[in-house]
Amino acid sequence: MFPRLRAQGPTVLIPLAWAVVGLAHLDVVSDRAVLIFHVVAAVLIAAFAALSWDEMETDVLRVWRDILLVGLLLTVGGIVGLLVVQLRDPFLTTTILGWMVVPGIGLYYTGKRVVTGQRAYTAGAVLSVLGAAVYAGGLFPATNAALLAGIGLALVGQTVGIAQAVRQPRETPSG
């Protein structure tokens, strides 16, 4: 059961994470709930990385292992931002933008390295990075519609990418 959960869990967890971010922007979920979600996410990311470390030693999977490590740092930064009021805005903004851009880069790289699913990975990359651009543009001045649109783009893009990865878990690189 655990290998299956490890392989397919991200297809639920990634869109769930972005949904929580969107709901937090709408003040539907409390800061405490967002903090708990960040702590749980950090534990899950660390556990996934530790349990998958040896399987993620080469090529595309090595890039995703690095993305998990950067993502863990981003998530811990989000925890700090939620706990230290003076750091809230810069740390949470960095966490959100980082989680949009870093997986976007990974999806782009993956799309260039695999034979099957190149379009899905590339589309996911474009949507994720476009989401970051829309979100960043919505910060100055703060526009909830733009922030939510950016979150939505990242949600769709990263969900497309992880769904492709689950469909093609043992893809061999093309180059």
UniProtKB/TrEMBL annotation:
Superkingdom classification of source: Archaea
Residue ranges of the TM segments: 12-29, 35-54, 66-85, 91-109, 121-140, 146-166
Species assigned in the record: Haloarcula terrestris
Keyword match Membrane: yes
Source taxonomy: Archaea, Methanobacteriati, Methanobacteriota, Stenosarchaea group, Halobacteria
Designated name of the protein: Uncharacterized protein
Keywords for this protein: Membrane, Transmembrane, Transmembrane helix
